[in-house]
Amino acid sequence: MNRLKWDDYFMAQAHLLALRSTCQRLSVGATIIKDNRIIAGGYNGSVAGEVHCIDDGCLMENGHCIRTIHAEMNALLQCSKQGVSTDGATIYVTHFPCLNCTKSIIQSGIKTIYYAMDYHNHSYAIQLLNQSGVKYEKVPFDAERIGQLFLNES
């Protein structure tokens, strides 16, 4: 039996969430874990009730889409809305978090970030993570291997 490892399982969840993204530029997913249980998930997209970038195009300002809320922030806000503590939690993200998401992750009490792909890794974000003691690690994600495990079990 080729049982899926926890890291692969949670990273697969983040990638699955990224498939819900409404951003045309980059699809990102995030899964927050506590005690090996998923407590929240998020993907990048528009504010609830706002038009989506996939429908109306990106709303660009200074090279950034200002319509989009990042996946990490959506997952953190989901915890906030539900009254779920993120203190000591872990987050799995498809891409390295931006500076603002990094700051929010640190402030939320999350202790570990696992990400699958580098994406404009900001030097100040890395400095803040190192100073705060938040562990961050690139965990490669092999969707084909995960798919093969699924097919072999069927």
TrEMBL record:
It comes from the Bacteria. Its cofactor is Zn(2+). Residues 5-136 form the CMP/dCMP-type deaminase domain. InterPro entries: APOBEC/CMP_deaminase_Zn-bd, CMP_dCMP_dom, Competence_ComEB, Cytidine_deaminase-like, dCMP_deaminase, dCMP_deaminase-rel, Deoxycytidylate_deaminase_dom. Keywords: Hydrolase, Metal-binding, Zinc. The keyword Hydrolase applies. Pfam families: dCMP_cyt_deam_1. Signal peptide: none annotated. Belongs to the cytidine and deoxycytidylate deaminase family. PANTHER family: DEOXYCYTIDYLATE DEAMINASE (PTHR11086:SF18), DEOXYCYTIDYLATE DEAMINASE-RELATED (PTHR11086). This is ComE operon protein 2. The lineage of its organism: Bacteria, Bacillati, Bacillota, Bacilli, Bacillales.
